[in-house]
Automatic annotation (TrEMBL):
PANTHER family: 3-OXOACYL-[ACYL-CARRIER-PROTEIN] REDUCTASE, SHORT-CHAIN DEHYDROGENASES/REDUCTASES FAMILY MEMBER
Name of this chain's protein: Enoyl-(Acyl carrier protein) reductase
Keyword Oxidoreductase: yes
Species annotation: Bauldia litoralis
SUPFAM superfamilies: NAD(P)-binding Rossmann-fold domains (SSF51735)
Length: 258
């Protein structure tokens, strides 16, 4: 996809690895200055050091003061903030259980990052965007926010919340010049997915083959494929789409595969 982001500044959360890193790299290749934001400070520094114009910011997106400081540092460093990619997120990868046994502390951890953190980042980033006359926000949701799965109730609830929050944000921020969309990845070959579904000790390794039969394309996505979808939503020429959920799921939600 040919996209020119020259002169624009993109803030990517969870950018030390996985989808976030791939997105930061893809946007940098299109000319954007990148804020590589992650709770993993060393990882953020490593990624930023490989990009032509980037800074690393260590931030826990659950901390409102830290989030406000990160946005302020972005504007101080680059003079503007045009694009926010709300990518940071977590899930339960071990000891997945039904809701009646789901630990309250794990619920708070997941919802605190995946939904509350997204709210805090969006609230902070919207201010300089509004002052400048507009911007773009892309929220990374999940296919399970549309089609629920067992044993991950907090993640399912948080991602469903992200999808509907995106619509609300689009209604509220559209008149202020900010376009807001979300993307729903299906199965993606991140390191966590690799361990869970393909590793020797993976909790769901035995079910992987059957699971892939449900996906028409028969494989998980690469992080680069998800980054391409995010780039599409953030592209300047994509100027009349807001409140939209882009499914990048290999056909997972197209229908039931017999």
């Amino acid at each position: 996809m040919d996209v020119d982001l020259t002169g624009r500044v993109a803030f990517v959360t969870g950018a030390a690895g996985g989808i976030g890193r791939a997105t930061a790299e893809r946007m940098a290749a299109c000319g954007a200055a990148i804020v590589v934001a992650d709770i993993n400070g060393d990882g953020a520094i490593e990624v930023a050091g490989q990009l032509p114009k980037a800074i690393a910011i260590t931030v826990d997106i659950r901390d409102s003061d830290a989030v406000e400081a990160a946005v302020s540092k972005t504007v101080e460093s680059f003079g503007r903030l045009d694009i926010l990619i709300n990518n940071a997120g977590v899930n339960t990868f071990k000891d997945r259980v039904d809701i009646d046994a789901f630990p309250a502390e794990e619920w708070r951890r997941i919802v605190g990052i995946d939904l509350d953190g997204l709210y805090l980042m969006s609230k902070a980033a919207a201010k300089p965007m509004i002052a400048a006359g507009g911007g773009r926000i892309v929220n990374v949701a999940s296919v399970v926010g549309v089609t629920a799965m067992r044993l991950q109730s907090a993640f399912v609830a948080a991602k469903a919340g992200v999808i509907h929050l995106t619509r609300s944000m689009a209604l509220e921020l559209g008149p202020k010049g900010i376009i807001v969309n979300s993307i729903a990845p299906g199965s993606v070959m991140t390191e966590g997915t690799r361990q869970l579904f393909y590793g020797e000790d993976g909790s769901f390794r035995a079910q992987t083959a059957a699971f892939m039969k449900h996906i028409p394309l028969g494989r998980p996505a690469t992080v680069e494929e998800i980054a391409e979808g995010i780039l599409f939503l953030a592209a300047p020429d994509n100027s009349y789409m807001t409140g939209h959920l882009l499914m990048v799921d290999g056909g997972w939600t197209a229908g039931y595969m017999l």
